[in-house]
Amino acid sequence: MKDEDKRKRKIKVRSNNMGNRKVSYKWVVTIIIWTFFISSAMQMIQAGLMNRVTLLVACLLLFSFIFIGIIFDIIGTSVTAASEVPFHSLAARRVRGAKETINLIRNADKVGNFCNDVIGDIAGIISGSATTAIVVMLNAFSSGDYQFILSVVLAGLVAALTVGGKAVGKGIALAHCNSIMFAVGKLASLVTPKGRRKKK
């Protein structure tokens, strides 16, 4: 009898979990549109700047795209690990950013998807394009045709910095998830309309 009860409980838990998983097709369409426009804008900026700047500035742009990817990965990891409970008392005292932080945590799946998948992946793609542009610039300065070697070395360096930076970032995100999300919530409060903030 005990074994049968355990089986029933397992079946019940599984069916409840599956029933709660709903795909928001509106969000899927929205994120696809946002991804298209953000990716296009960042690619235009990258392509336009790379043709007009020096090698040093091009390298700084490349590292800035890597940095953006790491920062948003930290936010995406933090929002899935953070708890909204500590922010309820702050929201009750009307502390700036508390309500925004709660809203972000409650929408952790969407925020994480936007930060990790949209911005993170776009930053990776743009970094690859910037790497190619820098390789062409380096090859123009060199006496021989070292484009293949330069592309391999630079691509490896970019990948190492990206993966290493995200690995460090994830550790920071998990250790300080609530503090990070509170900081993001404060930034979000600066761009949230006052009327909408009062309604929450």
Average pLDDT confidence is 82
**Major β-sheet, in short?**
none
First-to-last CA distance: 49 Å
Binned strand content: under 5%
Q: What integer value in Å does the Rg equal?
A: 22 Å
Number of strands: 0
Percentage of helical residues?
over 70%
Q: Count the DSSP helices.
A: 9
Helix/strand order, N-terminal first: HHHHHHHHH
The best one-word shape is elongated
Q: What ranges have pLDDT less than 50 throughout 5 or more consecutive residues?
A: 10-19
The SS-based structural class is: mainly alpha
Topology (elements, then pairings):
Elements: H1 2-20, H2 25-50, H3 55-81, H4 85-92, H5 98-106, H6 108-141, H7 147-175, H8 177-191, H9 194-199
Helix pairs in contact: 2-6, 3-6, 3-7, 3-8, 4-5, 5-8, 6-7
3D structure, described in words:
By secondary structure, the protein is mostly helical. It is built from nine helices and no strands. The chain has helices spanning 2-20, 25-50, 55-81, 85-92, 98-106, 108-141, 147-175, 177-191, 194-199. α3 (55-81) packs antiparallel against α6.
Task: Briefly say what this structure is.
The protein is mainly α and 200 residues long.
Task: Quickly list its features.
200 residues, mainly alpha, 9 helices, 0% strand
